[in-house]
Amino acid sequence: MPDPMHFDGMADLYDRARPPYPDALWERLRALGVLGPGTRVVELGAGSGLATAPLVAAGARVTAVEPGPALADLLRRRVPETTVLVGTAESVPLDDAAFDLAVVATAVHWLDLDVVLPRLHRALVPGGHLAVWRHVFGDPAAAPTPFRERVAGIVRARGDVPPRPGPTEVDTAGWVARLTAGGWFALRAVEELRWSVGLDAEQVRDLFTTFSEWSAEEADAAGRAVLDLGGRVTEHYLTPLLVLGRAEVPDR
Ligand SMILES: C[S@@+](CC[C@H](N)C(=O)[O-])C[C@H]1O[C@@H](n2cnc3c(N)ncnc32)[C@H](O)[C@@H]1O
After folding, report:
1. pLDDT tens, position by position, 223-242
2. How far is the CA of 100 from the centre of ligand 1 (A)?
3. Where do the domains of the chain lie?
4. Which long-range contacts (CB under 8 A, 24 or more apart) does 145-151 make?
5. Is any ligand 1 atom within 6 A of the Cβ of residue 50?
6. Architecture of the domain defined by 7-138+165-196+238-246
């Protein structure tokens, strides 16, 4: 089972290597009317602030929950306007009806949703929203590239690894079912944002080192694959975005 503290041991690398979220995501949240100046946001698993900084830039007042002390420290320095609570989404104290929007960016698979969804329901105001998104590094709908074939070879060489519990990262319908279970939240919108990025060998090695299921040797092998393929690759990524509304009366 991957270690949720994996990222805290590499806070600076994480911050440098992970790509930003696409502009279309922020535009979509604004267009849905869930993000704007003065929006009170609670962000769970904020990491180094890759989502926090654009939320603050959009005018939101953000309370960020992050269990990793090194990441929390970096987040405080990077986005000083943010209130940072060091702790887990399952246990950190949150005031009742204190937030308009809860955000979970590339962190939902780390959370115990049986605990977190009722907590968020309590922490949000009536009419509040939950926005969940993540990076999928390798869009399954994109045509396979020589680099992706090399990546698939590295993953295959691991042999049988027990799957993580819960839906896979590309199972958007599975995540909708998981996030609406218990009746705390109802689906309002789903978007699948597709985007591409050019990466050199060092950027690939750094990025793949941040993946919790990748070893350092495998990340090195991915970097070497880029060198074999001419020193630069275009990667096609996917960002599923789910926006849910707080249910007035949980259907339990
Ligand atoms: C892949 S990182 C995403 C960080 C950031 N949201 C981003 O978009 O870059 C996952 C984050 O979830 C945090 N995390 C892991 N378990 C958690 C928990 N139980 N409650 C809150 N955050 C958690 C990790 O410390 C890490 O910062």
Report:
1. 999 999 999 999 999 999 99
2. 21
3. 7-138+165-196+238-246
4. 145/233, 145/234, 145/235, 145/236, 146/229, 147/225, 147/226, 147/229, 147/233, 147/235, 150/222, 150/225, 150/228, 150/229, 151/222, 151/225
5. yes
6. 3-Layer(aba) Sandwich (3.40)
